[in-house]
Each structure stands twice: as structure tokens, then as C-alpha cells.
From TrEMBL:
B12-binding domain mapped to chain residues: 11-145
Domain of life: Bacteria
PANTHER family associated with the record: LAO_AO TRANSPORT SYSTEM ATPASE (PTHR43087:SF1), LYSINE/ARGININE/ORNITHINE TRANSPORT SYSTEM KINASE (PTHR43087)
Organism (species): Tepidibacillus fermentans
The keyword Hydrolase is annotated on this UniProt entry: yes
Cofactor(s) in the UniProt record: adenosylcob(III)alamin
The protein, known as: Methylmalonyl-CoA mutase cobalamin-binding domain/chain
Amino acid sequence: METEFYRPIHKIRFVTASSLFDGHDASINIFRRLLQAAGTEVIHLGHNRSAEEVVNAAIDEDVQGIALSSYQGGHMEYFKYVYDLLQEKGAGHIRIFGGGGGVIVQEEIQELERYGIAKIFSPEDGRRLGLIGMVNHMLKETDFSTSQISAIELEDLQQQRHLAIARMITLVENSYSQENQKTYELRWKKEIKRLANRNVPVIGITGTGGAGKSSLTDELVRRFLQDFPDKSIAILSVDPSKQKTGGALLGDRIRMNSIHHPQVYVRSLATRGSRTEISLALKDAIEILKTANFDLIFVETSGIGQGNTEVTSISDLSVYVMSSDYGAPSQLEKIDMLDFADLIVINKFDRKGSEDALRDVRKQYQRNHQLFDRALEDLPVYGTIANRFNHAGVNRFYQDLIAKVIEKNQLDWKLDSKVRLHESKNQQIIPPQRESYLYEIVNTVRQYQQFTIQQVDWLDNSIN
């Protein structure tokens, strides 16, 4: 049984997910953590994912492998359909791995592997190989460079063919992270720069980890597609690499529900050796997307601290997303992005203290920019609840953001002004002051039981 991870020659990327109608994600979470520990960049989709979603993500992300768990009984149809879709879309090089415990019997495993699935792991494989041995088998099968699969044509890039876009971005990433991979610089860089459409707006979204950047981006994408159904969007999402292993969890797709659209392209990037919140390959990746003639590009950085402002160097407009959990008001004076951001969002506005946070951030923005002649309500600071459908704060932020994009890039886009911009009332199922009401009930019952036990003990002692 193997105890050490295989060390691949190439940078390996995997898409991981649980199959459609399957809520059992414990096993796939174990495997994606092991893949990360082995230095793999893992694009995790979560549970209940259709074959189409998995395949499209695998192509957009230019991965070498797909790892799926399936415990819902429809594994024969599901795995075969994933395989068929990959062949149909010209991505037959992507290896498929799966498992389902005792749900997938030996005869079915053999049939699936004959069909073209790289490996279906059984409980016996787990006993024989161990977890690390199973992961090593996956790594050895996927240790190849996708750039060697087929040639890239500029025509495919300009026609927004996702496979070509993904392959070109991989060339860029490898040119920065691997010494022997200079194909992009030698062959493509000058041509891409020459062909890139300079008037494609780039919106940079940055902020603290867990502030809801991905959820907010998803809401912006949904509104943009609704207002401009003939336009296309590209999203570059950056997450940090682990310095120790080189692996990364690229998990922003989990929060995005509006990206499953033919006019949306999403690519997840790991920071790799950049030591900042953006990837070294990010500027070149943006040039590639401009060459592909997308109408709007979103760049979402990894979570940042108080002194990070890298997003401003790669975007036309920058958005800083935060929550009310920043500490004392004096902490706002340390946040550099309050000086540089074009718009500031306080997300998760249903949390306690958000109204105070909105006031304090507006005042800090006013001081930073010397805007004492403007009312606080007119400053570009917004309270949003991204996980609430059609939230007025998100609508207002979206309208102002796109208006700024139109003005700065001199575009002829027409915004739909018939949207709700003001909340009629604060809609909450559970008021903030009662969020712990279940704990209060449990605590009251426990105190009563403890009091009863004490009374019984007191009575026993008094009798004896």
C-alpha cells in the first residue's frame, strides 16, 4: 500500500463533483482534498451536478481529469453520457474516474471501463491500494500536457470556441510556472496583443475572503445577461495556491448559478508563485479574452488583506467587496482599497451591525476622497444581500456599475431602468436579535433539567 504521493511532471488539473440527484459528497470531498495535497489544482463543483455542467467546466478549465462520485443508482447512464459529451465536444483526452462504493457492482465497473471510463474504483481497490494509491493511479493517468493534444488556431479563438480559449490560457500559465514551457511567448504573445480588442471593459472584483465575491459576481452576470442577451461574458476567478504542496482549491464555481449559459466563459486560475492575490498569467489571460471578442470581462481575485490593491492594475473599474465584520471603525483607515476602489460593496447586509458599517465606510470613503460637499447617500458605497433574489441593493449597485462602464468605455449599451432600486422593508425570516432562538430553547430545557436533578439530589441528601 502506497504512502507517498506520485510527483507528476506536468501541472495537473481536475474537476471534481457528485453526480446529478446525488447529495452524497463525503467521498468526493476526501478525494479532492487528497488531490490538492498531491499538488493538483482542483475545480470543485459540489454535489448534484449534471453531465453537461461537468463536461463544460472540464473544457473551460482545460483539465486532464474528471473525478465523480455516484451513489444514486444511475451511474451507468451518467458516466457513459459524460464520456459521450467529451467525445462530441472534442475533449476525448480528458480522463474520467469514478466511484460509488458498493452501489456500482463489478460487472458494471467492467462495462464502464470497456466503454472508455479510465477507472471506476471499487471497495476492493480501496482495501488493496489505499487512498493514496488510488490518487496516485489518477495522477499517473493524467500526467500529460493538454497543449500537446492538438494545435490552436487564432480563428477558433476569435470565434469564442471555449476549448481553444482554455488551451491558450493554459499555455500562458505554463509559460510562467514551468521553465521549459515558452510556447506562448515565442509564438502567440505578440499576435494576441495585436489582435486584442482594447475597448472590452474589465471589471475587477476583490475583497476579503468569505465576503461573498463569487455570489455577487453571479448576480451581476444574471442581470447582465437579462439586460443584454446578445452580449458575451468572460470570468477569470483567482484562488490561492498552497505554498507547501502547490495544490489549490478553485471553488468559486460552486457559488455561481448563472454561468451555465452558452455566452459565458469561466476560467479558474491559481496564484501559483505570484505571492499576491492575482496570478502572474492574469494580464495575458485578459488579452486572450479580449482577442476572443468577449463584450465584458470580470476578474475576481482571491481574498485579500488590508494592504492589497493589485486588482487596480489589471481592471478598468475596481470593486471592493467586504462585510460588516471588519472590527472597530479605525480599522477602515488601514484598508488601501477604500482609496482605490471605484465602488465599494458591503455584502451580507442582513447581518447585525451592517447599517452602522455602511455609515462608517461611507464616512471613511468621504474622508479618503475629500468629498465633504457630497451627501453620504450619494457615495458609491452599497449594502447588498447577494444571496437574496432581486435584492434592491444589488440592483442599485449593478445599475451604477454598468453606467460607469458605459461612460468610461464610451459604449452604446442601453440599461433597463425598470428595476427595484429601494427595499420596501427589511425582509427577514428570523430577526437578527433572534438568530440564536433555538439555542435559547435548548439552553432553557437543559437548565430546567439540571435544576430538577439538583432538587432530587438535595431531597435524597436531606432524607439520608
